[in-house]
Write a structure and sequence with these properties.
The protein has 158 residues and is of the alpha/beta class. The chain has helices spanning 8-18, 38-48, 83-89, 143-157; strands at 2-5, 27-32, 63-66, 71-76, 99-104, 118-124, 132-138. Helix 1 (8-18) crosses helix 2. The structure holds adenosine-5'-triphosphate and magnesium ion. Magnesium ion (MG) binds at residues 38-39, 57, 76, 104.
């Protein structure tokens, strides 16, 4: 499915809408070039969960932990380009049944982990500077499957 937004606020509002679709245990992959609105979208999601703090991409810490109506972990893989760094970052710890994991630039860790319940792709629209095209899809990924991938991968690494 695809939506087009025409302003920063509209993308945030779309995030707010999506917050009603995302369920505990879900993992969400946000793809797209720099400045296409991934973080703006996460800000909207957190507004939907009534989070009052700031929502920015983690730069110093690897993952932000937002405690709101729904617990959300927010990661950005732009700096985590290889498997070793991801493992050392302990991303696998953030897959849990009662939280939602949202990862910007998740394609950069595809080699390590590529099973997501939601995949959203952000792109610029030629129509206007402030338009963005967002395509999204839902995938059934069982928690067990997720754990198997993570644990299996971890074991073969050593
Ligand atoms: N329709 C729109 N949707 C989202 N952001 C928009 C839109 N139009 C303009 N913008 C602007 O584009 C920028 C999007 O920035 P944002 O940090 O969300 O991008 P990003 O995809 O997270 O980039 P990065 O890959 O660097 O993390 C903001 O400055 C925002 O105001
Ligand atoms: Mg961002």
């Amino acid at each position: 499915m695809q939506v087009t937004t025409h302003s920063t606020e509209e993308t945030a509002r779309f995030g707010e809408t999506c917050s009603r679709l995302f369920k505990p245990g879900d993992s969400v992959s946000l793809l797209g070039d720099l400045g296409t609105g991934k973080t703006v979208f996460v800000r909207g999601i957190m507004r939907g969960f009534n989070y009052k703090g700031a929502v920015t991409s983690p730069t110093y810490t690897l993952v932000h932990d937002y405690k709101a109506n729904q617990r959300v972990y927010h990661a950005d893989c732009f700096r985590l380009r290889n498997r070793a760094q991801v493992l050392s970052a302990g991303l696998e710890e953030y897959f849990s049944d009662n939280s939602i994991l949202i990862v910007e630039w998740a394609d950069l860790i595809a080699e390590y982990y590529d099973q997501w319940n939601w995949i959203l792709k952000f792109s610029y629209s030629e129509k206007s500077e402030n338009s963005r095209i967002i395509t999204f899809s839902r995938h059934e990924v069982s928690r067990e499957e997720t754990l198997k991938i993570i644990i299996g991968d971890f074991n073969t690494e050593t």
